[in-house]
Protein backbone atom coordinates (compact mmCIF):
# COMPACT_ATOMS: atom_id res chain seq x y z
CA UNK A 1 0.00 0.00 0.00
CA UNK A 2 1.50 3.35 -0.95
CA UNK A 3 2.11 5.96 1.70
CA UNK A 4 0.00 9.17 1.84
CA UNK A 5 2.74 10.95 -0.10
CA UNK A 6 2.30 8.48 -2.95
CA UNK A 7 5.68 6.87 -2.50
CA UNK A 8 5.79 3.11 -1.95
CA UNK A 9 6.45 1.97 1.61
CA UNK A 10 9.89 0.52 2.08
CA UNK A 11 10.32 -2.64 4.16
CA UNK A 12 12.79 -2.51 7.02
CA UNK A 13 15.87 -4.59 6.12
CA UNK A 14 16.04 -5.93 9.68
CA UNK A 15 12.45 -6.87 10.60
CA UNK A 16 10.59 -6.49 7.31
CA UNK A 17 8.00 -4.08 8.72
CA UNK A 18 6.80 -1.52 6.21
CA UNK A 19 7.15 2.06 7.39
CA UNK A 20 6.09 5.12 5.42
CA UNK A 21 8.79 7.25 7.02
CA UNK A 22 11.60 4.77 6.34
CA UNK A 23 14.57 5.72 4.23
CA UNK A 24 15.82 3.24 1.67
CA UNK A 25 18.42 0.98 3.25
CA UNK A 26 17.76 2.26 6.78
CA UNK A 27 16.05 0.42 9.62
CA UNK A 28 12.54 1.28 10.85
CA UNK A 29 11.76 3.35 13.92
CA UNK A 30 11.16 0.28 16.11
CA UNK A 31 14.44 -1.35 15.18
CA UNK A 32 16.25 1.97 15.57
CA UNK A 33 15.00 2.35 19.16
CA UNK A 34 15.97 -1.21 20.02
CA UNK A 35 19.43 -0.84 18.48
CA UNK A 36 19.97 2.51 20.22
CA UNK A 37 19.04 1.01 23.60
CA UNK A 38 21.56 -1.81 23.12
CA UNK A 39 24.23 0.65 21.96
CA UNK A 40 23.60 2.90 24.97
CA UNK A 41 24.02 -0.02 27.37
CA UNK A 42 27.38 -0.90 25.86
CA UNK A 43 28.38 2.75 25.75
CA UNK A 44 27.65 3.20 29.46
CA UNK A 45 29.86 0.27 30.38
CA UNK A 46 32.66 1.23 28.00
CA UNK A 47 32.64 4.84 29.10
CA UNK A 48 32.74 3.79 32.73
CA UNK A 49 35.83 1.65 32.12
CA UNK A 50 37.53 4.47 30.20
CA UNK A 51 36.64 6.95 32.93
CA UNK A 52 38.08 4.71 35.63
CA UNK A 53 41.31 4.37 33.65
CA UNK A 54 41.44 8.13 33.22
CA UNK A 55 40.81 8.66 36.93
CA UNK A 56 43.68 6.33 37.80
CA UNK A 57 45.92 8.14 35.34
CA UNK A 58 44.99 11.52 36.82
CA UNK A 59 45.47 10.20 40.36
CA UNK A 60 48.95 8.89 39.54
CA UNK A 61 50.24 11.60 37.23
CA UNK A 62 48.94 14.88 38.64
CA UNK A 63 50.97 16.12 41.59
CA UNK A 64 49.05 16.80 44.79
CA UNK A 65 49.75 19.27 47.55
CA UNK A 66 51.12 22.03 45.34
CA UNK A 67 50.56 25.75 45.76
CA UNK A 68 47.77 25.78 43.19
CA UNK A 69 44.73 23.52 42.96
CA UNK A 70 44.49 24.07 39.22
CA UNK A 71 46.02 20.71 38.19
CA UNK A 72 43.45 18.85 40.29
CA UNK A 73 40.62 20.90 38.81
CA UNK A 74 41.83 20.15 35.30
CA UNK A 75 42.11 16.49 36.24
CA UNK A 76 38.49 16.38 37.39
CA UNK A 77 37.41 18.12 34.20
CA UNK A 78 39.41 15.61 32.13
CA UNK A 79 37.76 12.68 33.91
CA UNK A 80 34.27 14.09 33.35
CA UNK A 81 35.07 14.89 29.72
CA UNK A 82 36.36 11.36 29.21
CA UNK A 83 33.01 9.89 30.26
CA UNK A 84 31.00 12.20 28.02
CA UNK A 85 33.22 11.82 24.96
CA UNK A 86 33.66 8.06 25.29
CA UNK A 87 29.92 7.55 25.82
CA UNK A 88 29.11 9.40 22.63
CA UNK A 89 31.80 7.67 20.58
CA UNK A 90 31.04 4.15 21.79
CA UNK A 91 27.28 4.70 21.45
CA UNK A 92 27.65 5.83 17.85
CA UNK A 93 30.08 3.08 16.89
CA UNK A 94 27.94 0.39 18.55
CA UNK A 95 24.81 1.73 16.86
CA UNK A 96 26.44 1.56 13.45
CA UNK A 97 27.80 -1.92 14.19
CA UNK A 98 24.41 -3.28 15.26
CA UNK A 99 22.51 -1.68 12.38
ZN1 LIG B 1 12.63 -2.84 11.62
The major sheet is characterized as:
2 strands, antiparallel
Q: Helix and strand succession?
A: EEHH
The general outline is rod-shaped
Q: Which ligands occur here?
A: zinc ion
Report the radius of gyration as a whole number of Å.
21 Å
The tally of beta strands, per DSSP, is 2
Strand order across the largest sheet = 1-2
Distance between the termini: 26 Å
Residue runs with pLDDT of under 50 for 5 or more positions? none
Q: Domains counted in the coordinates: how many?
A: 1
Number of helices, where a helix is a run of at least 4 consecutive DSSP H or I residues = 2
Structural class: mainly alpha
Strand content: under 5%
Please describe the structure with a list of short key phrases separated by commas or semicolons.
99 residues; mainly alpha; two-stranded antiparallel ribbon; binds zinc ion
Amino acid sequence: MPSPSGLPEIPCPKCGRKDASAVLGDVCVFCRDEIQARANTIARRGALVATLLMAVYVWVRIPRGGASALPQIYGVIAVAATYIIMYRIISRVAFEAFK
